[in-house]
Amino acid sequence: MTEQVGTGSAADVSAEARRMILRYAHQRTIHVGSSLSVVDILAAALDPATEGPVGTVILSKGHGVWAWYAVLAALGESRYADATELPGHPHEGYPGITVSTGSLGHGLAIGCGVAEGRALSGSDEAVVVVMGDGELDEGTVWESAAYASRRGLRRLVAVVDLNGLQQEGPTQDGPTGHLAERRWQAFGWQVFRADGHDVDALRRVLLDARNAGPAVVLAFTVKGKGVSFMEHQPAWHTGTLDDAQYAAALNEIAR
After folding, report:
1. 140: left (phi > 0), else alpha (psi -120 to 50), else beta?
2. What are the DSSP calls for 83-104, one per residue?
3. 132: which of 86, 145, 224, 232 is 20 to 30 A away, CA to CA?
4. CA distances to 114, 128, 167, 253 from 57, in Å
5. Which tens digits make up the pLDDT trace of 148-163?
6. Which secondary structure element, helix H or strand E, spans residue 7, and what is its range?
7. C-alpha separations of 78 from 7, 39, 40, 193, 215 in Å
């Protein structure tokens, strides 16, 4: 049984979640590289100790759900201790998950609807939509970006897990984020940049961004972060760890 952190810091939660992701990948095939990329972003966004409400979190890159499960498990949710019976994308109704996602490009549109509903009801709670950088190829992302800007959705925050890789290879923006930054600015969004593996820095920038929306955080990450034979390798977009790989990966992230 994996020890659950529960009351640890966001950095402790992230470290435990990284171990959980490897455990899941030892149990079955998962989107392991993508999950190791996005896990620190989710640890920061879901951190209950964050000052003030970060608000609703929508994981638009649904294939990274293993990171979400792992963070919730590290926060004490026992439903996610074992990967064998869990769905491969977020399903509404599972603990901590309020929006089902999977097909890329739709999370931001859902976030627009939630943010506008909150604004109309007088709520000040933010909506955080976590996306992949490959997902920026989807036209619906930019339709939603235009809508959010036109409607002045101040509490809407998008976070782009910018690792420069998608399943087939490099993204069109690559690792610099310069094209993405210009596109978001052209749609009238405030742009923030952050180290996507620095949980404390991510927490701070999320708190700033939620008061400046619509805002986007370009979070620079490494696909397969923490495991040398997975880092920057599109082949580990999905995968299963055999016994030797699992032991080696655990040893690496423990250093």
Report:
1. alpha
2. -TTS-SS--BTBTT--S---ST
3. 86
4. 11, 5, 24, 26
5. 999 999 999 999 999 8
6. none
7. 14, 18, 20, 34, 33
Report the alpha-carbon distance of residue 134 to residue 65 in Å, rounded: 16
Structure tokens at 122: 């007088």
CA 12 to chain centre: 17
3-class SS at 158?
strand
pLDDT tens track for 118-158: 999 998 889 999 999 989 999 999 999 999 999 999 999 99
Whether the CB-CB separation of 164 and 174 falls below 8 Å is answered with yes
CA angle 108, 45, 175 (to 5 degrees): 65
Nearest CA among 51, 6, 15, 19 for reference residue 249? 19
Cβ atoms 199, 40 nearer than 8 A: yes
In angstroms, the CA 166 to CA 152 distance is 31
The CB-based long-range contact list for 114-117 (8 Å cut-off, 24+ gap) reads 114/56, 114/58, 115/148, 115/153, 115/155, 115/156, 115/213, 116/151, 116/153
